[in-house]
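Morning F.,

Quick status update on the modeling queue. The single chain you submitted on Monday has been processed. Sequence for confirmation:
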Amino acid sequence: MEKDKLRELISKHKLFTPIISELIKSLLISEEIKFHVVECRTKEIHSLEQKISRKKIQTLDSITDLSGIRIILYYQDDVDKVNSLLRKNFKIDESNSIDKAEILETNEFGYLSVHYIVQLDSKRNKLPEWKSYSKLKAEVQVRTVLQHSWASISHELSYKRKIEIPKGLSRKLFRLAGLFELADEQFMLIRDEHLHLESKIEKLSENNELFGEEINTLTLREAINKEGSIFRTIEQLAFEVGFTESEDSMSESIHNLILLASLLKLKNIGEIEDLLKSKIDLIHKFFIQLLPDGKGWDGSLYWFIELALILMTKPAQREIYLNKTKSSWATDIWEYVDNAVIQTKKL
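Structure tokens below.
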């Protein structure tokens, strides 16, 4: 085959690949399908030439993977959702698409992934911006994070086919692949249980029954965000003193709050609320101590609560807390807060 024709074809695909990748991302987002990453690549000319030579390809029409898209998902059941999404929005070349799971025997484990060969559907082909790509195809691989890990490791070991695996390693690799499959199933079960717990905690919150619940990410987040709670009162105090609102990393703040609750030996949501309610006047004085001029610092709901709980700690507890959260604090800021705690308790 002429090299100029190959270069021309690859040039078209280099434009097509990122565009179709972004289209797929936007479709995933619109369907609320969470994904780890969407990767894309266009085959280089030397790789294409090697494939043509190795497989004795006579026509370029038979090459369907010049544009490659890989969708890596968190959960196995999302693979089915992506299947529906692709079939709804693209024309699928069924003869060249493949579900790797279907080619394994029932007693085998191995590399699982679904590969679709897609083309733009008739509706999108009519749009001016897509017209020049109407005849191009792309390979879309769909797999979970764990399937991707298995594929990456086996590729690193250069074992692309079962026959290539040394007999001494074959059983170990297949057992490991089985564990990956089992883990995929377990992650779905954990997700479902997590969603069930979220629903249960929301109902408890609506009925004001969170008090006896253990302190964890779900219960604490629900309690903090509830309108009219002591946590909201603390936020309002901070604003009245002169703090301004800012965004922060909620996941890190939640972690720090749980750590502080543990150091203070608080066992449930009721205990943390009761402690803060009993010290609300002291917390007010602490915020004033932090902002003597009534301006110059911003913060968020979670951080204001973190400050309030730091106020409740003893020096030894603060030392443990600081050692575990050093990355969250600039040295001068921590020293300022620590000194403000000491001064407030003298009042």
